[in-house]
């Protein structure tokens, strides 16, 4: 099932990519400023990706473990939009986040977070709210000290 979900995400993102002029695409790449030589961005709006992920999750009735596996695959992609989709999918399971979620993301950051947009979206949507919850103070201190 995980492969079916990933394929559906990839197909949606590619089929719904923005029709940008050369100038618009150049500007987008400058703003995203990836250090990945194979970097690709389709230009999908984040709100459209998030809506699609919400619908996809309802269709497949995924659980946290499946979402985590899909996130781990998509965050390793060279395609910016796929990474964003993975972040949005994982974020749908924030009630299930735990120390392992933080460890997983910490492990993936060095080789897979190739733009500030990916880093910021992950920190603002995924890590920040979890670490900010009451009862996570010690984990927050340890995480921040390690990073």
From TrEMBL:
<protein>
    <recommendedName>
        <fullName>DNA alkylation repair protein</fullName>
    </recommendedName>
</protein>
<dbReference type="InterPro" id="IPR014825">
    <property type="entry name" value="DNA_alkylation"/>
</dbReference>
<dbReference type="Pfam" id="PF08713">
    <property type="entry name" value="DNA_alkylation"/>
</dbReference>
<dbReference type="InterPro" id="IPR016024">
    <property type="entry name" value="ARM-type_fold"/>
</dbReference>
